[in-house]
Amino acid sequence: MCITCCILVDKMSDIHYDLCIIGGGINGVGIARDAAGRGLSVILVEAHDLAGATSSASSKLIHGGLRYLENYDFTLVHKALKEREILYKNASNLVWPVECILPMDNKQRPEWFLRLGLWFYDRLGGKKSLPDSRLIKFWEDGVGKPLKKKYKSGFRYFDCQVDDTRLVIMNAVDAASRGAKILTHTMCKNLKIHDGKWRVSLKDTRSDDSIDISASMVVNATGPWVEGFLDSLGIGVNDNDLPSVRLVKGSHIILPRMYEGNHAYVLQQEDGRIVFVAPYEGGYTLVGTTEEDFNGDPRDVHISDQEISYLCNAYNSGFEKGISKSDVIFTFSGVRPLLDDGKDNASKVTREHFIYHHGRYEAPLLSLYGGKLTTYRAVSQDVVDKLMQISGRVGVGWSANIALAGSNFGDQGFNEYCLKQKSKYNWLPDDLFMRYASSYGTYMDCFLRGATSLDDLGKHYGDSIYEAEIEYLKKYEWVSCAEDIIWRRSKLGLYISDQTLANIEGIFSN
Ligand SMILES: Cc1cc2nc3c(=O)[nH]c(=O)nc-3n(C[C@H](O)[C@H](O)[C@H](O)COP(=O)(O)OP(=O)(O)OC[C@H]3O[C@@H](n4cnc5c(N)ncnc54)[C@H](O)[C@@H]3O)c2cc1C
Q1: At the fourth CATH level, which superfamily is domain 410-509?
Q2: Pocket (CB within 6 angstroms of ligand 1)
Q3: pTM attached to this predicted model
Q4: Which CATH superfamily is domain 80-164+245-348 in?
Q5: Closest C-alpha residue for ligand 1 atom 25
Q6: Is the predicted pLDDT of residue 365 greater than 60, yes or no?
Q7: Predicted confidence (pLDDT) per residue in 330-359, tens digit
Q8: In CA terms, which of 89, 193, 210, 420 is 20 to 30 Å from 60?
Q9: Which residues, 6 or more positions from 201, have their beta carbon under 8 angstroms from its beta carbon?
């Protein structure tokens, strides 16, 4: 359905919204969820697909950011560690603990330095569910086995891993369940003040249809486009207080599974950076990331040959069994929209966020700079707090203590929930069961309820992808093509056959 139909058919009265959010990355959907939960009428427009840009290209970590301690970014690490705990509690199917092994190398940071950093890291976030760090001897502990023999000991500490795209999608699902309207493939082309409100011009990027809506408040959550978007509309011209964005590209390589176990390795590099090697999607190993300034179109970001070499060398610096470029199965890249704090080195630029109020307009317009996946909930809360304050509305932040849509497992927790669900759907193969449970949480019942065998899930498209799931995705998760399904609602694209892909594409070509 085109945007005109989508908005008009639904409810004519909804053509005015309290809040219009531009951008469907983690920040946009987080703001939509928070604002809808405070009773605002919300519309979110996303030019491409949800999580189609930076939010699907992260290192998949919900972390305090151990290395930011070196930059004395204690406030950021404190906030991020607190958020790690909140997200682990509120989205435990999508956020899980990962044991990180940091081998010690006498040419790198000294033991006392790492020990001190980890001491802070264990304490800065306050009360936590994850275990404390400790020193380990590799001759006593199997985790040292795949590493180069030069490493004799290291530190073990904990962070969390996340399914970044599912986190975006489930925030959008949650926002929609609270009344927010989510429009994908809808680009904001213009913003104008009219009668004290924002007139927002939208264009359906597939049909070229256009429509105007009005909104009392607007948030520019366009991530790497934050500055380009404002420039294209002439907003911020002659505004000397307007912050600048620093675009920093980061890439990852995916290898076949390189070692046994669910732990990750944190490898210190000669240039002072650290590279993360982690289990990924069951059968793979993720290596990343790079950091380099970026000036191109964020929609067209790709790994370079140098980045592949850098990541292969980083891997080889730590592991006994080396790799070459030909071992790389897949790569992905993204652009960090960082707040430009004037630092020379891209690695040192702050990961703090900044919310800018374009105060010269009659109606509130905020632009969001910087931030991390980890802190999106707190950032979203800050953005909505600011909107409430500027517009004189009442309503307090609520999201710290409420489970995300699909993650409401109550006191039993995710593991116990899985055991119960497994006995209910005992006919599901283990792999498929775990994929459904971790991706959809309690929402798995939406397409499994009543089914008693795989045959009840409808047509099989190949590689354990059934009609029931696809129908659910089309209806409730804004899926409109095969790519949405295999890369942003799942990572099935990593391993499905060409035939399965063609079968799924067939659904959307009719
Ligand atoms: C390589 C890399 C690794 C990272 N690793 C981590 C990590 O491990 N942990 C962590 O916490 N953080 C990490 N981050 C940071 C994190 O991914 C980002 O901070 C976060 O995803 C930014 O989200 P966003 O919503 O601001 O931007 P995006 O996800 O880019 O979303 C912005 C959206 O706005 C849309 N848009 C743009 N213009 C318009 C328009 N005119 N109309 C409508 N829509 C529009 C775009 O299509 C896009 O979908 C990493 C970042 C990178 C690049």
Answers
A1: Alpha-glycerophosphate oxidase, cap domain (1.10.8.870)
A2: 22-28, 45-48, 52-55, 57-61, 187-188, 221-225, 229, 250, 289, 334-337, 371-374
A3: 0.96
A4: D-Amino Acid Oxidase, subunit A, domain 2 (3.30.9.10)
A5: 25
A6: yes
A7: 999 999 999 888 777 777 777 889 999 999
A8: 420
A9: 188, 189, 190, 191, 192, 210, 211, 212
